[in-house]
Amino acid sequence: MKRALIFFVALIFIGCHSNSTKQIVANNNVTIYPDKIKQTVWGIGFEIQSDAIGSGNTGLPEDKHAVPHDLTKQERERFATEMLKGFRYCRIAGGLYWRGLDAESKYLQPRWPEQLEELREMIDVAGVEGVSLEYWSPAPFWKANNSYLGKGGADKYNTLRCFGPDFGTDPIYKGDTLRFLNDFAEACVTDLQTLKEAGIKPLKWGLQNEPMVSNNQQYSTCKYFSKEDYVKAYVAAAKAIRNYDPSILLISDTENKYPGKIGPFMSDPEVASLVDAYVVHTVGWDSESVKSVGKRINDSLPYKPWFQNEYEYLTGGATPERCLNTVQHIMNSFQIGENPSWYWIHALKPFKNSEASGYSLGFWKSLEENHQKATSNAYHRWVGGPEIVNLPDKFKTMEFLNVQRKTNKAPGLNFSFIINRPATAYMLVEQKGEYVPDGWELTDIKLDSENSNDLVYKKTLKEGDQRIAEHNGEANGFYGAPHAIFLESEFKDFKVEVGINSPIKIRSEALKLEQAAANLKPGHWIYNDFNWNAVGSFVKRMPWDCKVIDLVEDSYNKDARILTFVKPNGKHTIVVSNRTSEEYTFKINTGIANAKWKGYRYSPFERGENTMGVEIGEQKGAILCPSLPSLSWEFWEEE
After folding, report:
1. Cα separation of 108 and 100, whole Å?
2. At 24, is the pLDDT very low, low, confident or very high (cuts 50, 70, 90)?
3. How far from 217 is each of 11, 154, 175, 419, CA to CA, in Å?
4. Contact 147/139 with Cβ under 8 angstroms?
5. Nearest C-alpha neighbor of 105 from the set 76, 75, 147, 72
6. How many CB atoms lie within 10 A of CB 404?
7. Are 244 and 192 within 8 A, CB to CB?
8. How far, rounded to the nearest angstrom, does the alpha carbon of residue 27 sit from its chain's CA centroid?
9. What is the distance between the alpha carbons of residues 443 and 429, in angstroms, rounded to a whole number?
10. Is the bond preceding residue 493 a cis peptide, omega within 30 degrees?
C-alpha cells in the first residue's frame, strides 16, 4: 500500500519536458486509450428565434423581430456562414417561434409568407443538416383553451383538448379520446410535411417542450398534468410519425434533469420502441451536474442515448466564469455523460430582450425598430416611458432597473431580480387604485415625470432572489407605473442579475448593450463573446460524427477537464480546460507514439480568427504536456 502511494505521488511530480527543455510540473496525469471507442457525437445544435417574443419571455408580439427575417441580405449570409456553419441541428419551437396558423388553427404555417423560405435558405447556406421540431404548444385547435397561452400552473384548460375538463361535452369529439388522438397525431405529421415541402429536413421530433410547465400569458405552453396523459399523446403521435418517416429521431421528454413523464412507462415494449433518445434540460447548471443527471438516467431506465437540448443562463448575463462553465459542460457531456449531441438555446437574440445576454450567442439590431443612441442621462419610469426629471444626485450613483412596458393602460407585470449582496432599495410607485407594496416603508421622496409623479418606498433587501408583485392599481383607465427600483449597496462587488422570465432592464448592463447597438447598423449582428467563444470553439473544431475515446485521470479536478476524440479522418484531438485561479498543467499519455500535436487556445476574451483559436505551438511524442492559464481551454490536434 505504501509503495503504491509513493509511486502515485512520484507520478504527479514527474515533469514534462517542453520543446525548450524547461521542466513542467503536472497537476494531473491522464492516460488515453485510443482503441477504446465510446459514443459517436453526431453534432451540436442551436435554437433559432424565427419569430418575435416579448422581453423577459413575456408575450407573443405581432411584429416580426426574428432571425433571419430581421437581417439584411448580406448579414443573413454572414450569419449563416460565419456563425452557423458547423452546427448540425436547428431546433424549431413549434407554436412559439413557428406559430402561424391555417384558417381552422389546426396546423402550423408561416406567419408571414417568406418565413419558412428564409429558414430554408439559412439552413442551406450554413450547411445545417436539418431541424428538430418540438412543440411549445400545438396549434390552438388541439388545446382545451383554444389558445397558445395559458393562465398559470393550475390552468386545467392549458392542455390537450382531450385532457381538458369539458371534453365529455366537446361539440366535435364528444369525449372520444382515441379519435381525437388519431387526428392530433395526423396533425403532427402534417406539420412535419409542411417543413419538408418547404425544403427543410426534419431530423428529430418531440411532443412537448417542458410538459410540466403552464405559465401565465407569457409564452406558448401546453401542460400535461399526468404522466398517463403525456404517454397517451406521445405514443399516438410517435406512431404516426414513425409510419410517416422512420428516419426521424423520436425524443422524450425534455423536462428538467430527468425524463419523468416517459420514464415510468419504458418497461412497456410499445412505448420503449417509440423512444429513440431521452432528452433533458439542464439549463445553465454547473458542469459537474452531467455526472448526477447521467447516473440517474442510466441507473433507472433502459438504455437509450441521452442528451440535453436547451442550455442557457436563465438569470443574469454572460460572464467569463460562465464561459468556462459552458466549455466544461460540453466536455463533460461528451466525455463523462457519453451524450451524442448538445444544444445551445439561441443563436441570436435582439438587443431589446432582457434575457438576451444569458440566452444568446450573439445580438442583432432590428431593421423595423427605431433605435436611439445610448445615453447615460435619461431615466425612465418604464423602458421607453416618461422620463423622470429633477432626479436627486444621490440616486444617480445607484444601480437602476425598470420594466418593459408598452402602455400605462394595462397593469404592470410582476418581475424578479437577483442581487449578490444586501442593498437598500427605493421603489417608485404611482398611486392609482390605492396600491401599497407589502413590506415597504413609504419615504417623503417624490419623483416627478411627465404629467405624473411617483411615491418612493424603501426596503432593505437581503442577497438573493427578489420578487416584486404585479401592479394592478387603476384609475380612469390608467394603471400605476410598473415598478422602477434604485439599488444602493456598500459593497464594491455589488451586482444585479435579471430574474427568470423577467421583463426588466438593468441600467448598467443595458448601457453596455446600447453602446454596442449604437455602433451597429440596423439589420446587423454581433457576437456575444462569452457565450459564443465557448460554444463556437466546439462547433468549429469538432466535426460531425467524431468518436469519443476512453481515458483515466489520476487526479480528477472538476475545474480542469479533459475530452478526447477521434475525427472522421482518423486524427485525434485532445481538449483541456482550466477554470481554476492558477495555471494548470496536464501530463497526458496519448497512447500514440511519434505523434505531432498542434495547440489552439481560447479564452472568454479571445477566440482567434474565424473562431479557430490562437496557435500556441507544437509538441511531439506520445506524452503531451499542455499548461493552461486560468480561464482558458485548448484544443490539441494530431497532425
Report:
1. 6
2. low
3. 60, 13, 27, 26
4. no
5. 147
6. 23
7. yes
8. 33
9. 11
10. no
Q: How confident is the model at residue 572 (pLDDT cuts 50, 70, 90)?
A: very high
CB 83 within 8 A of CB 168: no
Q: Cα(524)–Cα(68) distance, rounded to whole angstroms?
A: 10
C-alpha cell at 248: 426521424
pLDDT tens per residue, range 299-308: 999 999 999 9
Contact between residue 329 and residue 506 where contact means Cβ atoms under 8 Å apart: no
For the chain, the first-to-last Cα distance in angstroms comes to 41
**What pLDDT was estimated at residue 18?**
46
- Count of CB atoms situated within 10 Å of the CB of 390: 8
- pLDDT per position as a tens digit, 219-243: 999 999 999 999 999 999 999 999 9
Residue 488: its H or E element? strand 484-488
**Of all residues in the chain, what percent are helix, strand and coil, respectively (each to 5)?**
25, 30, 45
What span, in angstroms and rounded, lies between the C-alpha atoms of 314 and 301?
28
Helix (H, G, I), strand (E, B) or coil at 459: strand
Average pLDDT, stretch 393-420?
Answer: 86
Task: Find, among 396, 411, 507, the residue nearest to 447 by Cα.
Answer: 396
Residue pLDDT, tens place only, 422-460: 999 999 988 777 777 888 999 999 898 877 788 899 999
Determine the average pLDDT of the residues in 152-170: 97
The DSSP secondary-structure symbol of 160 reads B
Take residue 545 and report the three cell numbers written for it.
Answer: 460524427
User: So what's the pLDDT on residue 15?
Assistant: 44
| Confidence category of residue 384, pLDDT binned at 50, 70, 90 | confident
b/e burial code for range 245-271 (CB count within 10 A of at least 16 → b): eeebbbbbbbbbebbebbbebbeeeeb
More confident residue, 290 or 368: 290
**Tell me, what's the pLDDT at 123?**
98
The alpha-helical segments, DSSP class H, found in 483-549 are 507-518, 529-541
- What pLDDT was estimated at residue 308? 98
- Give the integer Cα–Cα distance in Å for 206 and 277: 10
Percent of all residues in the chain with a pLDDT value above 90, rounded to a whole number? 76
Mean pLDDT for the chain overall: 91
| pLDDT tier for residue 526 given thresholds of 50, 70 and 90 | very high
- Return the pLDDT at 5: 37
Residue from 385, 328, 319 nearest 531 by CA: 319
CB 50 within 8 A of CB 592: no
Of 148, 144, 150, 149, the closest CA to residue 163 belongs to 144
Beta strands in 26-136 (DSSP E): 28-41, 43-47, 89-94, 100-101, 108-109, 130-135
- Taking the CA atoms of residue 306, residue 310, residue 316 and residue 319 in that order, the dihedral angle to the nearest 10 degrees is 70
Question: Would you say residue 338 has pLDDT above 80?
Answer: yes
Angle at 477 between CA 476 and CA 481, to 5 degrees: 100
Dihedral angle over CA of 392, 410, 513, 526, nearest 10: -170
Task: Give the pLDDT band (50/70/90) at residue 383.
Answer: confident
- CA distances to 162, 177, 206, 235 from 168, rounded to whole Å, are 9, 9, 27, 22
Which sign, positive or negative, has the C-alpha torsion 321, 325, 331, 332?
positive
> What single-letter DSSP state applies at residue 81?
I
Tell me whether residue 550 is exposed, middle or buried, using C-beta atoms within 10 angstroms of its C-beta: 0 to 12, 13 to 18, 19 or more: middle
Q: What angle do CA 51, 69, 247 make, to 5 degrees?
A: 70
Amino acid letter, 500: I
C-alpha cell at 327: 466549455
